[in-house]
Specification:
With 416 residues, the chain is mostly helical. 79% of the residues lie in helices and 0% in strands.
């Protein structure tokens, strides 16, 4: 891999770990404040909204300056979100600020990978990216669960942090103050790592920055990628996958609390089993699936939906653990080749930043729609077990349709 790739992986891993741990901590803050349970998915909704709203701007912004520098600025915005929590900003609003930083971070991160890595190594590079993302989700969930546990919240450090905030006149009166302070230090480590990520040297022609021109350019880029055979197929799969993943993140937490009677901190550890599986699946895909073979993993999408339904019917902890790991493994095998194919085709049709922005827009719009639907159904007090079951069957059916359409198209994929 090119020089600096390992630092890029380390920097994005550290920042993403803090994002995922912060999600668990903000969920605990909501519970501490006594708000209804359907507010929890709104945290992710608010986080993701920036990806959709800023998509026309994020791509040109990532192409307009060295991407490593932009990553550092976006990490600073995430820090502002955590500081907002410490001064009493509502958790949903503060997490939305963190999402604003993440929305600018993603096109720079993926675009830099596309600029640094040759096409023949994109699947391997994406396997490392996905492994780091999922490891961040795994350790983030575990870290978040630890930070909201009685061991931390009842510690002397937590008490001192709480008293310190009150002494400074800050309104946050919570046992989670010390946990937020620790997460600030994690974002600080990410900033230090980003200082070592090199500039790829890629430069693009300056483009019109008028808002209407940006919207027209983005709409044209979106149409171009969807209408392309390889681009449209891979975009459809990844769009569906990330919407599923975001919704499953909350559904598993609620299912674990309702069906297995686990508290939030232990449910977060159970959720991490999915991440373990994705790491294994991403590793398998990175070493076994070449870019020109990417479409062969589509049947894994059907299996993924069926496994989600099987998980919903499980009521034993010992059965749930391997099933959740298998869900993650199948998901990892599916998404890594599809993501590499999408990046390769997007870079051919568009610029690195613009193609990633289009990808992010569609995937995060899927997350918004699925999370909004999930939160609405929870607000209606529908039980989570049938929700997960039906959700899994719908995923299996959707992936089957994409697989069927692929078999009736002629795709020309790179052999290198």
């Amino acid at each position: 891999m090119p020089t600096g790739f390992s630092l890029l992986i380390a920097a994005q891993f550290t920042s993403a770990l803090a994002d995922n741990a912060l999600l668990i901590v903000t969920m605990a803050l909501l519970q501490e404040q006594g708000v209804p349970g359907w507010w929890a998915p709104l945290l992710k909704f608010a986080f993701t909204l920036s990806y959709v709203v800023l998509a026309p701007v994020a791509g040109p912004l990532a192409d307009a300056m060295p991407k490593a520098r932009l990553m550092a600025w976006m990490n600073a915005i995430k820090v502002l979100g955590v500081l907002g929590l410490l001064v009493g900003v509502h958790p949903v609003l503060a997490y939305a600020v963190v999402g604003l930083g993440a929305a600018g971070y993603a096109p720079a991160k993926y675009g830099l990978v596309t600029e640094m890595v040759p096409a023949r190594q994109l699947v391997v590079a994406n396997s490392w990216i996905e492994i780091s993302i999922v490891c961040a989700a795994l350790l983030g969930a575990v870290t978040g669960g630890f930070l909201v546990s009685a061991l931390v919240c009842g510690s002397a450090l937590a008490s001192q942090a709480r008293q310190g905030l009150l002494a400074w006149g800050l309104p946050l009166d919570s046992a989670l103050a010390g946990s937020l302070g620790l997460l600030l230090s994690v974002y600080g480590v990410a900033a230090l790592l980003q200082l070592g990520v090199p500039d790829s040297g890629a430069r693009y022609a300056r483009r019109e920055i008028h808002p209407l021109a940006l919207l027209r350019d983005f709409a044209a880029s979106n149409r171009l990628l969807w209408r392309d055979a390889e681009g449209g197929l891979s975009l459809g799969v990844t769009t569906l996958f990330w919407g599923v993943g975001a919704t499953l993140q909350f559904a598993v937490l609620r299912w674990a609390q309702e069906s297995l009677r686990l508290p939030l901190d232990q449910a977060a550890y159970l959720q991490a089993m999915v991440a373990v599986g994705v790491v294994l699946g991403a590793g398998v895909a990175g070493h076994r699936v070449a870019l020109h073979q990417a479409v062969r993993v589509l049947p894994a999408g059907v299996l993924l939906g069926l496994l989600i339904t099987a998980v919903s019917l499980t009521q034993r902890f010992a059965v749930a653990l391997p099933l959740l790991a298998l869900v993650g493994l199948v998901g990892g095998v599916l998404v890594v080749p599809m993501n590499a194919l999408l990046q390769h085709r997007g870079h051919q049709l568009l610029t690195a930043g613009r193609s990633i922005a289009v990808q992010g827009y569609n995937e995060n719009l899927s997350i918004l729609v699925m999370l909004a639907g999930y939160a609405g159904l929870l607000a209606l007090e529908l039980p989570v077990v049938p929700l997960m079951g039906v959700f899994g069957l719908l995923i299996a059916a959707s992936m089957a349709v994409l697989w069927w359409r692929c078999r009736h198209r002629v795709l020309t994929l790179p052999a290198g």
